[in-house]
Amino acid sequence: MDPTRQAMDEIIAPYLEIEDVDAAALVSQDGLLVASRGSLGMRMEALAAYGAAALSTAADLANVFDSGVPQSITVELDGRFLILAPLSEKLFLLLAGRRHS
Asked: Which residue from 29, 54, 86, 100 puts its CA 20 to 30 A from 71's CA?
């Protein structure tokens, strides 16, 4: 395995051990899927693109409040969730899973 790919996998692998997390990914700020593990049977590339757009919108909202960069975004849907968290200026973490009642 490519050392860079292995390093990326090592960053996201522990998140899959969190209860209810079914997929974890590293995504570039422009929405490109860099690395992913796990699956919900969903299109990770589409989630990556929408996630980048959501973080960009949250950053714009933070500017309205003269606040810093958003620390995370949580989207709760019927039976599913999505968490987006910047890791650096270039990458963010995407976690997706299923909520159990």
From this structure: 100
User: Within 13 Å and on the Cβ side, how many CA atoms surround 27?
Assistant: 29
Pairing of strands 80-86, 33-38: unpaired
Radius of gyration for the chain, computed over Cα atoms and rounded to the nearest angstrom: 14
- Cα(25)–Cα(98) distance, rounded to whole angstroms? 16
Residues in the chain: 101
Q: What is the pTM of this model?
A: 0.88
Report, as an integer, the average pLDDT of 74-85. 94
Instruction: Give the C-alpha separation, 69 to 31, whole Å.
Output: 17
| Cα 70 from Cα 73, distance rounded (Å) | 7
Q: How far apart are CA 96 and CA 66, in angstroms?
A: 29
